[in-house]
Amino acid sequence: MGNLLEAIQSVRLDDDNDALVLLDQTLLPNEKVFVELKEMEEIWEAIYHLKVRGAPAIGIAAAYGVYLAAKKSAAENYEQLYADFKQAKAYLASSRPTAVNLFWALDRMEKRLVKEKDKPVQAIKTALKDEAEQIRAEDEQVCRSIGEHALSLLEPGWGILTHCNAGTIATAKYGTALAPIYLGQERGYNFKVYADETRPLLQGARLTAWELREAGVDVTLICDNMASIVMKEGKIQAVLVGCDRVAANGDTANKIGTSGVAILAKYYQIPFYVCAPLSTMS
Question: Three-state SS for 38?
């Protein structure tokens, strides 16, 4: 399973070639293409046009992107490097103004740069790379932890319904809502997963069904308006979804259609679980 997930890793740094490597999610499921991005304009365009998507993956891409901008800077001192960094940060931030993790990651990178300001320029650049790698590693650990907690709520053989895409290609690894499914797959739980197509951009059809199938999970793609019937027929024992934002009062915001699925789950008395990292919470 680990190797299968690594084969569809959506965001990684190729430091030797000064490149951000992304799985182009706009081409899925028909083509699996990894693109190498070396210019800030390319990284901006990739975020803006959803070549990379999913809150954690966007944050990781931004962290690597702003590191690469700093790495290429010809600055000879901290002040010059900071000016170049701020310019790159502002530019990347404009690619997706509503993406919380984008700003969170960029702000964290800036804090690390300021913390290292008394060091030589090259040492600061090395620290920025370290910070970006930590952001990626921490997200992988968070996703696995979400998966472990959620898996404790599920039983082997259950039917699971999910909406949109909150899987490994939206994060560093494992995903959020799909993390317990991947961990269950490793441990022989034999879940039967139903993936809503998720109109209008069809993330469930193009992405969730694709990545689960790539990992060998038993998955069935259904139309959004089929959720009620599979619940009524007793095929669903739990609903797992990701989350774009958790408000301070506990309200959640996610892809259009999630509210309808939640209402159906309540009607049919099916547990509905929102899987989210702390970085999405107010």
Answer: coil
Phi, psi angles (nearest 5°) of residue 52: -115, 135
How many Cβ atoms from other residues are within 10 Å of residue 153's Cβ?
12
The CATH homologous superfamily for domain 150-280 is Translation initiation factor eif-2b; domain 2 (3.40.50.10470)
Please calculate the CA angle 69-168-20 and round it to the nearest 5 degrees. Answer: 20
CA distance 94 to 26: 20
Answer yes or no: pTM beyond 0.70.
Answer: yes
Give pLDDT tens digits for 58-87: 999 999 999 999 999 999 999 999 999 999
| Terminal CA-CA length for the chain | 33
Which residue do the tokens 């000879």 mark?
A: 76
Q: How far apart are CA 244 and CA 228, in angstroms?
A: 24
Residues catalogued as catalytic:
244
- Residue with token string 């600055």: 75
pLDDT surpasses 60 at 2: no
List CB contacts of 246: < 8 A, sequence separation 6 or more.
252, 253, 274, 276, 280, 281, 282
Domain 2-145, CATH among 1.20.120.420, 1.10.3210.10, 2.120.10.30, 1.10.1140.10: 1.20.120.420
